[in-house]
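User: I'm new to structure prediction. If I give you an amino acid sequence, what do you actually give back? Let's try with this one:
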Amino acid sequence: MSSAFLKITNMSKGVLNYKKPAFWIIVAAIAAGIVIGVCFLTDSPGTALTKWDTDTVSMKKVMSDVNSLSVKYMNKEVTCNEADMNRFIATMDKIKVGRRPLSKSRNEGRSKVFSITVNGHVKLNFNDKFDEIWVDNGVKPSFSYRIKNPSVAEELLLDYNFTAKTDWGKIDMASLRSKYPEYFDLSTFKGLEVYVWQLAPSSYSFGLMPGTNRDKEFDELLKMKGASFEEMRAILSAYDVDEENISVIPWMHPVSSYIAEYWIREIDEDQSSFEKRQREYVDRIRRMLFSNDQNGGFELPNFLTDIKTTLAYANWAGGGMMRDCLNGEKMIISSVRHLPVYKLDTTEDLDRFKENYKDILTFDQGYGEVPSFNEVAASYDDRFFKDHTVILAYIEASSGSYRYAVQDISYGDRALCLNAVQTNHPEVGTTDMAGWFVIAEVLDSDIANITEFDATLQ
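Assistant: Good question. You get back a string of structure tokens that encode the predicted 3D arrangement of the chain. For your 458 residues, that looks like this:
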């Protein structure tokens, strides 16, 4: 026989003589496979943030010698004192971070609503849900990693009590992201474009798009949701983009019949003057979005307490309430929405006010449960005005379903501001345009030294 035949014969005998392994060996092999599979499918419990090594930075090394620490939220930054710094470090040690990156992206435009800066240059960036983190050492941003216990990170940052140290925290970023998802996580490679349009003299809406080298299509612009300036300021704070890389672009929305001053060229106005006013308009918009001065222009530490307030229907005036108001110089673009305000301290003032605006307002008609102005003013006679003054502000609204009230009246040595607030937020409203008076009756003795009057909608 040939040697090849013998080899094949021996192999065949080996196959025929094969014996199954013992049962316990099979079970052990299956168990080992399951354990290995689970190990590959699951992540570790996480590494303490202070001992975590990213793909670019060793936090263990950074945290071994901390000499400064600051916390940033919504573009506002506070440097921690020594006690806060020690507390932060102790709590940071409890935050657990996953070892594997969520993605390979190093995009610097990633969400970073909260951030902690260590030693002035290593920045730990948290998203608004506190479940993702990435680190920027000023040289090369890291990948994004999963925070295993986001509640600990949230407690650490929110417990720092930003609202007590500043006037932050009024906008919930998680709700904002849910309301305007299309305005978050945009590419910032070519900057950002902020579009602004007006629905009334003091009503500004904002939309956001990534920067491009082309003009946006009309359909793209029409799909933008109108965010308030406070909301847009908060949205922009989630991006790490220099202000000069954010363009502000006025737009005339087709649903609005109001024409903003940006688009109006006065008779006999030369081109250079017109372009200068357009630049000033854009500059004021930029101050709304990027300026830190949000106090409305007055430092008013005191509040009037002995006041009676009410709401009266006035009808839509279409911007016609500006001509005789006491704060006309503030009826420009501002980070605070100013309202036309008036002071009536005699029956003659009351009669003159009604005469001046009888052609554009409705004084003798109410709206639903809201009384007419004449009903409210029925008690404003000479005896009332002997020791009282009426301060009223006019609010234009895009729906008759909205309601307003006087929140408070603040004052200083010579200035007074009536602060109004919207009291309801209906999901569905009427489509009619409406106007309202928020009215406060104050004692003459309380405003004897006041020479400057203002009103705002908070």
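You can read the tokens as a compact description of the fold. Here is one thing that stands out. The longest strand covers residues 388-397.
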